[in-house]
Amino acid sequence: MITLQQFAYGKLNLTLDILGKRPDGYHELEMVMCSVSLSDRLVISIGTCEPWRVRCDRPGIPQDEDNLCYKAAKVYYDAAGVDPNGLFINVLKNIPAQAGMGGGSSDAAGTLLALNGHYGFFNDEKLRQLGLKVGSDVPYCLFGGVALARGRGEVLSRLPDLPKDLVFVLVKPEFSVSTPALFAKIDAEGIRVRPDNEAMVKAIKKKDRAGIGSLLQNAFEPAVSEDYPVVQEIRRQLLSRGALGARLTGTGSVVFGLFRDKMAAARAALELQDKYREVHIVTPV
Ligand code: C5P
């Protein structure tokens, strides 16, 4: 039996734009993504001589073939035409679930990376194609870092890292949104805000911290805030505590604030912890 270990990092949407609905039912997106230091840990045992199993220490996450790690492993072994003779995937969660931070997608990406690190069957491009079969965010999670994502999320171009001194405060309110239902609402009601992705890319290239903060934008945010006013409440609180900008990530529910340095972030996080159960301080990775 062989045991592999892999970290799987969460992501934030610095921007998220919805360009339109595609004939295949998915939506054409344009997003600036950033991976952050909050990570899950995967421990994968190959050759357990038993039926495949997934275990997760967080209640509510599927522990069967519906788990995205299981799906990723299945896609990998099917493509490779190899039978591992038993597989056990243990997922140790830190990334909030139902949060817009790509936790499940990142675990799936981590599974592909760990397996491919061991077997080396596929190149990066092929691995991203396999990832897309598991979910739209998986190719980005394989890619990591700061990137512009287009298409369903799988057409990726690398952007420079964010300045190392920038820090995010994440606040996770207790609601969750169905992604297909939210896309349907946007299709019916139209888009009310759009990010300026070109300006965001320029601000990142110039390391313009205030510019990055002011250009954070998410086309889902108005629709989600309508049903969950807590989103705007958290934004106001982050901004009044010195955030350069604050937004919903993905379909939520995490709202993040961007701070100039660790001290400012720590002060804000300490105060917000009195009001909200789940608050994290993270850095770009
Ligand atoms: O690809 P994934 O399974 O993560 O997508 C979940 C759902 O989100 C899809 O079934 C679809 O309704 C919606 N989606 C979309 N356009 C995208 C990504 C996701 O409409 N680019």
Explain the overall architecture.
This protein is α+β, with helices and mostly antiparallel strands and 285 residues long. 36% of the residues lie in helices and 29% in strands. It has 10 helices and 11 strands. The strands form 2 sheets. Strands 1, 2, 3, 4, 5, 6 and 8 form a 7-stranded mixed β-sheet that branches. A 4-stranded antiparallel β-sheet has the order 9-10-7-11, sandwiched between helices. It is globular. Cytidine-5'-monophosphate is lined by residues 26-27, 29, 135-137, 152-153, 179-180, 183.
In brief, what are we looking at here?
With 285 residues, the protein is an alpha+beta fold. The protein contains ten helices and eleven strands.
Distance between the termini: 32 Å
Low-confidence stretches: none
Number of DSSP E strands? 11
Return the average pLDDT rounded to an integer.
97
